[in-house]
Amino acid sequence: MEVSKFTYELANKGNYGIDAPPVVRNLSLIGILLIIAAGIVFSINGIVWRILSILFLLGGIVCFAEVIMMVWSSKKGKRHVVKKLMEQLRVKESDTVLDVGCGRGFVLHSLAKQLSSGKAIGIDIWNTSDQSGNSPEITLQNAETEGVKDRVDVIDADARALPFEPNTFDAIASSLAIHNIADRKERQKAINEIVRVLKTNGRVAILDFQYVAEYAQMLEKAGLTDVKISKMYFAMFPPVRIVSGIKK
Ligand SMILES: C[S@@+](CC[C@H](N)C(=O)[O-])C[C@H]1O[C@@H](n2cnc3c(N)ncnc32)[C@H](O)[C@@H]1O
After folding, report:
1. Residue 39 contacts by C-beta under 8 Å, 6 or more apart in sequence?
2. Is residue 15 part of a domain?
3. Which of 107, 108, 124, 197 to mutate to test the pocket of ligand 1 (most atoms within 8 A of CB)?
4. Residue 3 pLDDT more than 70?
């Protein structure tokens, strides 16, 4: 008999990289430049220059604080929120599950850890601007490190054209992926694809820091029930919400 689990073991051995590395790099550079500028301006006499120097220094500190929060979010904060995502999906041991935009596989392998006879499939376009060192080889290496390689498959695919038959998956997750699609109509295609490949009674949970209300609206329009938007989780930076729903 299969029992739905409510405590979830997460992936904890792999190297899951850093999200949005160009943003982290640019904030670091701006922070360094602002602090150098603060030092230079401070050496000029006059109250206006002193105030400007303090403002540059504060700007530099804010940039570095954001860098620290973003790295912490990728390495630690995501663990807390992905637990919430798993609670929404209630994966069972024999389920076939999909992670849309799996990247290096933190969510994918956490899902795989709930399975015995089931399968966890990750699709991605492996954009290295969205996650450092992003590649299917790294994802499979992480699967091996986590001891779930026998239950994991990765496929090169775009969220807007999922290479699966309708009604294939018992549960579908997506974390920080769909906001990368800039155009609303294109995001709609991704959401429609998720609904198409989800089985009847299947569950979906989408974690993101942008467009969550839009996803909820699109999921409802596509016929999902029990569509909910979670509270905001500040364990990640930028803070995120989870949209969940069931296909009836
Ligand atoms: C910030 S990373 C998050 C990766 C992973 N879901 C996680 O939470 O650790 C975003 C991922 O979405 C992928 N992605 C972006 N646009 C995509 C698209 N149109 N279709 C599939 N994947 C996409 C990127 O390649 C990247 O792996």
Report:
1. 53
2. no
3. 124
4. no
